[in-house]
Amino acid sequence: MTQQDIVETAFRVWGRNFYLDTSLSFLARELGVSKTAIYRHFRDKQALKDAMHQRFFDRYADYIRDDFVRASAAGDDAESFSLVLRVQAEYFARNPWEFVFCLAEVYSDREPEKMMEQLLKRGIDMLSHRRAAKYSEGYPSLTQMVTASLIFWIACFHKRNSKDASVLNENPGEDEIKGLVAFVENVITGGLGLKKEKTEKLDFESLETSAGFRDIGNIENGTLFKAVAEAVAEAGPWNVSMDMVARRSGLSKSSLYGHFRNRQDMLRRLFVTEFTHIAKFAREGIELSAVPEEQLYLGLFSIVSYLRQRPEILVAISWIRTRRLNLGRHASYRSFQVFETIRFDLRQDWEKVPAKTISHWLTFLVVNILMHFSEGMNFAGFPNENIRILYRFVTLGVKGF
Questions:
Q1: Do 222 and 180 share a structural domain?
Q2: Are 160 and 72 part of one and the same domain?
Q3: pLDDT tens digit string along 62-81?
């Protein structure tokens, strides 16, 4: 057994449960050795995780370096952007366990710049190519929306090609990879492909006025779910306890079990119920217009309006953690029926994408830009201009900028 054997096994074993448990005992069992054997190579678990970071960034930098050099030398902004985008999509499509590692251990709400800092140490300045540098100022930045979209579609690719999280397809076919890269490039550069002349005619202020007056109103079990959401936002869905929720809700622990069978049922009910409310609120906004381009903006604006009024829900929805919960297939499907009534005139490459997945992507982006906007739970000051920027990105892609 070598250090490399241990590191490679750790990527696969710890990645199966999204690094929720990084037990050396579990890793030793997978390797068929004792923990003592691992300690002969690494003094402690942190040393092993440091080696994993080193291995990830070294391999990632080596893979993208040539394309990045070509992108930096390209005379055309669009060509430069596409080269960098394609090589990143290809790397994470080929390396599912490193993609999981990147999400769980590198790209986080707390340290979004970690990847760029590590690559810069290896001679790669991700912001140096023209288009990223030109449009990374302001909020939300183009870089942020592109990164979030790349993460989303790569995750969909691996989910579609896997039986479950513990059996990822580590060798996707070349045609599958090429198809994914082409799709991601088209989505990010061109968005949904709506007509620019139609989207530019939108009276955003009028639409915001018509949708903005709505209050989310009384929600069934609102006080109880608020207590659950606040506890989840504070401790995370894996560490939250029934005792924590009981204290926040003013109920006894035994009374709480009258509402939820167990902790898992409580978490499932929270997320399914809240996503259902969000979808309903968004659909009500969509119905304020019959124009597809306006309906899309009203839907996005409504989701933001709901989460502004329920900040504890927003913080609880740390997206990746949410998707790791077993919500049940039917419940998950209902929760993302948001934009499916809108009859878009989409480009051909969207034809095979389920409307549910498009709704999921749009909601993912809303949550992403809100979560990066403010620390804590104060989102009241989130300006409408940010929603307009997001709308331009999802409808026109990078070309809209």
A1: no
A2: yes
A3: 999 999 888 888 877 788 88
